[in-house]
Design a protein that fits this description.
single chain, about 280 residues, alpha+beta, PSTPO5379-like, PSTPO5379-like fold, 7-stranded antiparallel beta sheet, 4-stranded antiparallel beta sheet, 11 strands, about 20% helix
């Protein structure tokens, strides 16, 4: 399995406060200019998305996989072959405006560039998938602390032993993100995130990591380890990095993804994906 780079993209607390107030276009401009950072805490109030671009010959299989596994893979947009902009941010360029990418060949990680313009192909169909960073603004507003943001870290992500339902040639295990939540606030975190099903919604598991097949919670497969406080409970949400484990398992000849935690920051407000109550 390809590993993430735990020490990359850490952001000091003062910087977190600064990037939180950036407009999405300004965040994308920073990444286009070469800034590299995980995007948790960036552009508060705006939706972030996972990205997967595959050859058109694989696009139906990916679409089928996402429709059969909507919890980890909620589709926000599908960008046609030959296009490099999304309705989620019409002036953005998907080839340059994320902080870090991953290039895959036959399911193997080949490179982690900050710009994929030279690698882009005319036959690539791009899927933008909901990201749990989107509901973090709501969690913070509800008084739920985000330990990874407090510590300037990427959110920890784990490959589980829960196999997704296959879609054609595409298959693989579900990935989850983990946030330590104070026990009295677990219900609040569940309620707030549950109102946003298009960005993963409510947690898939609360409590014992071993029940998901996670043997060492201090050693995430992607992202960074995060220090829990006394009284915190591990809470797990389905994660769009599931599509990267599917790439590893299914081995399409070529694919481009975001690097875990290094998301596409859109112009779409978080509120667009919140259920009205």
């Amino acid at each position: 399995m390809a590993s993430d780079r735990p020490s990359e993209g850490t952001v000091a607390q003062d910087d977190v406060r600064d990037v939180a107030h950036l407009a999405p276009a300004a965040a994308r401009a920073a990444f286009r200019a070469g800034a590299v950072a995980h995007t948790s805490g960036w552009a508060h109030g705006f939706t972030q998305a996972n990205m997967l671009a595959v050859p058109q010959s694989w696009a139906y299989d990916v679409l089928l996989f996402t429709q059969r596994n909507r919890k980890p893979c909620p589709v926000l947009d599908v960008v046609d072959a030959g296009e490099t902009a999304s309705v989620l941010a019409s002036d953005a360029d998907l080839r340059t405006d994320l902080p870090r990418y991953r290039i895959w060949r036959d399911g193997e990680l080949a490179d982690e560039p900050t710009d994929v313009a030279a690698d882009w192909r005319a036959d690539l169909v791009t899927f933008l998938i909901g990201c749990s960073f989107t509901f973090e603004t709501g969690l913070s507003a509800a008084g739920v602390p985000l330990r990874h943001v407090e510590q300037g870290r990427n959110v920890p992500m784990f490959v589980t032993d829960r196999e997704c339902r296959a879609g054609g040639r595409v298959h693989g295990p579900m990935v989850v993100s983990m946030r330590p939540i104070p026990r009295p606030l677990v219900a609040t975190a569940t309620r707030v995130s549950g109102l946003m099903p298009d960005v993963h919604g409510a947690p898939v598991h609360i409590g014992e990591p071993a029940e998901l097949g996670i043997t060492d919670p201090a050693a995430p497969d992607f992202g960074d380890p995060v220090t829990a406080h006394d009284g915190d409970v591990p809470v797990f949400w389905a994660c769009g990095v599931t599509l990267q484990t599917a790439v590893m398992a299914s081995k399409p000849p070529f694919a481009i993804t975001h690097a875990p935690g290094h998301m596409f920051v859109t112009d779409t407000p978080d509120s667009a994906y919140r259920i009205r109550t």
